Amino acid sequence: xxxxxxxxxxxxxxxxxxxxxxxxxxxxxxxxxxxxxxxxxxxxxxxxxxxxxxxxxxxxxxxxxxxxxxxxxxxxxxxxxxxxxxxxxxxxxxxxxxxxxxxxxxxxxxxxxxxxxxxxxxxxxxxxxxxxxxxxxxxxxxxxxxxxxxxxxxxxxxxxxxxxxxxxxxxxxxxxxxxxxxxxxxxxxxxxxxxxxxxxxxxxxxxxxxxxxxxxxxxxxxxxxxxxxxxxxxxxxxxxxxxxxxxxxxxxxxxxxxxxxxxxxxxxxxxxx
Length: 273
Prior knowledge:
Metallo-dep_Lactonases, alpha/beta, about 270 residues, 8 strands, Metal_Hydrolase, globular, Amidohydro-rel, TIM Barrel, L-fuconolactonase, 9 helices
């Protein structure tokens, strides 16, 4: 089974997407399952992991409701307020829904880089482990050192780093990002999504611009801990769905890496789809 491990849907009328402004002309409209289904069919993708795009619990329930209506949505990564004193209770409640597979705080938008090391977050992460949910880590390179500390404190927590931690490909800031990412190499509970790289590159990116970063992701995590995702529709800022699929297929073929693992089996195992 082929799985797109990272995609979004949104409806502007819900009005809780603070980051989604009219200036983002390609994205400032509704994106619904009917918009994605033709692309999934074209590339023989059987299902997706639908990921939150707004920091509200209403977003979580909106996505879970969609998952009840569309068979292609195999799992949902939602949102819960980690700072809420009732966060553990909320996670337990949400986890009763069979399609909820993970929770993602929007760490990249939190000004305090030490937020993830707070006692409140630690308590909430313990609840994630107990409920067998994945912690989707939406982080940037400056968060990786703290993320390593977090992982060390929660050895039973499944962690999936989103978008390779969003390396600055435009400025070719490869070296330090690679060093920090290598700290996760021997941690089997940490995986990484091969997604979101195109929006970190120049608008005229070519496959060869991304390959050093993809090399690093596979060097660190190996083919059993890398999950392919489209990051659609955010990816439309820099690429068509097909161009990103073709780029990754080219890389996997050239490097003799298992497409079955990267395009599906890993996501199914890690998210327990």
